[in-house]
Write a structure and sequence with these properties.
Oligomer: single chain
Shape: globular
Strand content: 5-15%
Distance between the termini: 62 Å
Radius of gyration: 29 Å
Helix content: 40-55%
Strand order of the largest sheet: 3-2-1-4-5-6
Length: 574
């Protein structure tokens, strides 16, 4: 099978959100051929290089999403009119308020009106893609004054959303620039028969920009599309737009909402990584019959030794592992630890992780200052050197050389986040057989499944009480840790992830028409070039296979037979 893996800012680059699970998936598909189509997020990411690719990766095609050069094409009168019509229709759909629920772009209203708006958006999007494919010059057109004027006309039209109607010139320029950035995949040269058109299916590693090439490949060549979302891209756009003006936020939310709905509508299957993502997808218009939950596959091997030796844990230590940033809410964890120390004075807290960017570094500095304020250095005696019960460490240091060693250092693993998608750190703690205390965010409850304690977020007192309960009950800790490890090994391993996707691939291809010749240049049969029913036992199946191989039955080679004129019954009697 020929699979096209579509990524944005991830695989095959060294850094990226989806690189680890994509790499594990590709390595597990040794019996198939994989083409990688990757959009890079920055020049720095491109400079970091690629991961080592396995032999089944046939080729890699990349394109920068962070920049786009104009190709110098100047539109004539017909092309300009064609662009103005398509872009104007796209802008009108984004500004229309009748088919949206407030200003968030989520489809509401009657089914008929929603379908009409969805069709209008799709027609405009594919119209721009066809223009880029036939004429080129789309990047320059999207940056032109024509685009800004079309957007302004749509915002000022009767019936436009109030937020869109109040858009000012800076807002229009910002929205036009963001739309040009989002529509850059339309100008790629990936959609010919020697590109995405040569594949058996496209697998988008996320929604949004990563899925857009797959959406266009389905439109141009009929290649089926599979979309995987472990973190819903639409939700990410909503969270990132909080500091924009209401007009910018409304129009961009409408665009990303419409794009997500069209991707879900055209996808053969959609694989959310958890029920939290699944609820978002259903609200954005995904057909429930297309949804197949596939949990991320993680390598349990590095944690096996720790998981099989629960006695290695320090009985009076709590451990937090992850990326340091404000969403992890370490401030609440530190205040909870102050309450824990009142009941269990000998407890220690180990915070293991590196800061995520400049904001994370500033947050880590703030947390260290807060820890020094809440917990002055303590000494065992008058001649001993004092130390703080809270330590801040990073993986690779002398105390925690590996990730498994970090989890092994504590009897209870704590997750204190206020925002979380799929909690990878929680699964790692489960692989290590550790009892856990987590906040009820994202997919935490679904992942933990009753094998750990869950408390409300931003509630230090509840977090402290749950930690104290486990610190005082070693048998319960051991029982919960064993159950958590068994659950993780059953649901979240690489093997189950690969098996699930392999089955979905076969199901998609079995329902898709053959688009290639059934024989290669050497005369050998190509996989999936013959319909699946041709392999059923029976004499007719061999004939069916021969018919497909040579292009059809012999009686179909001549001109079509005309229908005979119906003779009235009275004339037939005569």
């Amino acid at each position: 099978m020929r699979i096209g893996l579509l990524t944005e800012g991830g695989y095959p680059y060294v850094s990226g959100d989806a690189s680890p699970w994509c790499d594990r998936l590709v390595r597990g598909l040794a019996q198939h051929e994989v083409d990688v189509y990757a959009l890079s997020r920055s020049e720095d990411q491109e400079g970091e290089g690629w991961l080592t690719l396995p032999s089944q990766v046939r080729r890699v095609r990349t394109a920068p999403l962070w920049t786009a050069e104009e190709d110098g094409v100047v539109y004539g009168r017909r092309a300009r009119r064609r662009f103005a019509d398509c872009y104007g229709e796209l802008a009108a759909v984004l500004c229309a308020g009748a088919a949206t629920d407030g200003d968030d772009g989520i489809t509401a209203g009657s089914d008929d009106s929603s379908a009409t708006v969805a069709d209008r958006f799709a027609s405009a999007l594919y119209g721009l893609a066809e223009l880029a494919r036939e004429e080129g010059g789309l990047v320059g057109a999207l940056r032109s004054e024509t685009a800004v004027r079309a957007l302004e006309c749509a915002c000022r039209a009767p019936g436009a959303l109030r937020a869109a109607h109040e858009a000012r010139v800076p807002d229009l320029l910002t929205v036009a620039a963001r739309l040009e950035h989002a529509l850059r995949p339309l100008s790629l040269d990936w959609y010919e028969d020697d590109g995405l058109g040569s594949l058996d299916l496209c697998h988008a590693a996320s929604g949004g920009a990563a899925a857009l090439p797959g959406l266009l490949a389905r439109h141009f060549t009929g290649v089926p599309l599979l979309v995987t979302e472990y973190g819903v891209r639409l939700r990410t756009h909503y969270l990132a737009a909080h500091d924009s003006s209401p007009a910018v936020r409304s129009l961009l939310a409408a665009f990303h909402g419409r794009l997500a709905a069209e991707i879900y509508r055209q996808a053969a299957y959609i694989t959310p990584g958890n029920a939290h993502a699944r609820r978002w997808q259903e609200r954005c218009g995904a057909d429930r019959a297309k949804l197949r939950t596939v949990y991320p596959g993680m390598d349990a091997g590095p944690f096996a030794e720790v998981g099989e030796s629960p006695e290695r844990a320090a009985p009076d230590a709590l451990v937090w592992v992850g990326r340091v940033d404000p969403a992890k809410d370490l401030v609440s964890l530190l205040h909870a630890f102050a309450e824990i120390r009142k009941d269990e004075p000998g407890t220690r807290l180990r915070v293991v992780g590196a800061p995520a960017g400049p904001e994370g570094a500033a947050y880590l500095t703030h947390c260290k200052a807060l820890a020094a304020q809440l917990f002055p250095d303590e000494a065992a005696g008058p001649h001993a050197v004092g130390d703080n019960p809270v330590s801040f460490e990073e993986i690779g240091g002398p105390e925690t050389p590996t990730l498994a060693d970090a989890y092994a250092s504590g009897a209870v693993s704590v997750l204190s986040s206020v925002v979380e998608g799929f909690p990878i750190g929680l699964v790692e703690a489960m692989f290590c057989g550790r009892a856990t205390v987590s906040t009820d965010v994202g997919a935490v409850v679904e992942v933990i499944g009753g094998t750990g304690l869950v408390v409300p977020p931003r509630n230090p007192r509840a977090l402290a009480e749950a930690c104290v309960a486990l610190l005082r009950d070693p048998e319960r800790r051991e029982r919960l840790g064993a159950a958590a490890r068994a659950r993780a090994l059953e649901l979240f391993t690489v093997e189950q992830n690969i098996a699930a996707f392999h089955g979905i691939y076969l199901e998609i291809v079995s329902h898709s028409p053959a688009r290639h010749s059934s024989l290669d240049d050497a005369g050998d049969p190509l996989p999936f070039a013959v319909p699946a029913e041709a392999h059923l036992p029976g004499r007719w199946t061999a004939a069916a296979s021969r018919m497909v191989a040579r292009g059809g039955p012999g009686w179909a080679a001549g001109p079509p037979v005309r229908a005979t004129t119906r003779v009235p019954a009275a004339e037939a009697v005569r």
